[in-house]
């Protein structure tokens, strides 16, 4: 349970914990437009599945909007992130942390300057450190040229697809990650809307929107995953289809004779 603080909304709570607003509202018998009152108790189900295990480094799954940090094969931290909007997607691939900067200066890319001009905004070339810098107080530059993991001055934008391709974290989360990683820390960005895991005899599915439209048939993907990992006998296919259809972004039990809707 989460106790609502002053000025919190379903959007800000969902951003902080990594939950879709509509899912958060439904699980608390609220409307997505509902206003919250200070002291109100909110049930937050933010169960997520790590899509893989790394020996060391950072794993980011784009549809999941989650960053996982591993050390010695163990998951030590995980955070919701903000990512590139569909017309400006975050790239996939391997990377290393190429640079670390506190209180960074934002050199505005020419493409973003052009967007500012088209939208009638004041065109900026350089944004100094401070409360107006969209990078926040921490920048981790990636070896993928032009992209980085950074903070934000708009925490409610986390867990959404609003950036120009960079990976955006809550200020508290990026400060923690910044202290953990060093130049050369490896990482990988993947695209996996459907994440599946087995815990003992139980099978869990986590389904997210195919925001970049890269995986047109997720049911076929599940069939392949189930066959490869011998999950078929344990999986309730009707519940699995429902999880895929709802795209809630929360890990749900899809075990035959055990799972509940």
Uncertain runs are: none
CATH fold call of the largest domain: L,D-transpeptidase catalytic domain-like
Report how far the terminal alpha carbons are from each other.
21 Å
Give the radius of gyration: 19 Å
| Apparent shape | globular
Biggest pleated-sheet summary: 8 strands, mixed
- Specify the structural class: alpha+beta
The strand order across the widest sheet is 5-4-3-14-7-10-11-13
Structural features, described:
With 261 residues, this protein is an alpha+beta fold. Helix content is 21%, strand content 27%. Strands 5-4-3-14-7-10-11-13 form an eight-stranded mixed sheet. A three-stranded antiparallel sheet has the order 15-16-17. The longest helix is centred in the C-terminal third of the chain and has 11 residues, at 218-228. The chain contains six helices and 17 strands.
Brief synopsis:
The protein has about 260 residues and is of the alpha+beta class.
For this entry, give a set of tags.
L,D-transpeptidase catalytic domain-like; alpha+beta; 3 domains; Membrane-bound Lytic Murein Transglycosylase D, Chain A; single chain
Fold topology:
Blueprint: E1 2-3, H1 10-17, H2 21-27, E2 41-42, E3 57-61, E4 66-71, E5 74-80, E6 83-84, E7 93-102, E8 106-107, H3 110-118, E9 126-127, E10 138-142, E11 148-150, E12 161-163, E13 167-168, H4 171-180, E14 186-190, E15 194-199, E16 202-207, H5 218-228, H6 237-246, E17 252-253
Parallel strand pairs: 3-14, 6-12, 11-13
Antiparallel strand pairs: 1-2, 3-4, 4-5, 7-10, 7-14, 8-9, 10-11, 15-16, 16-17
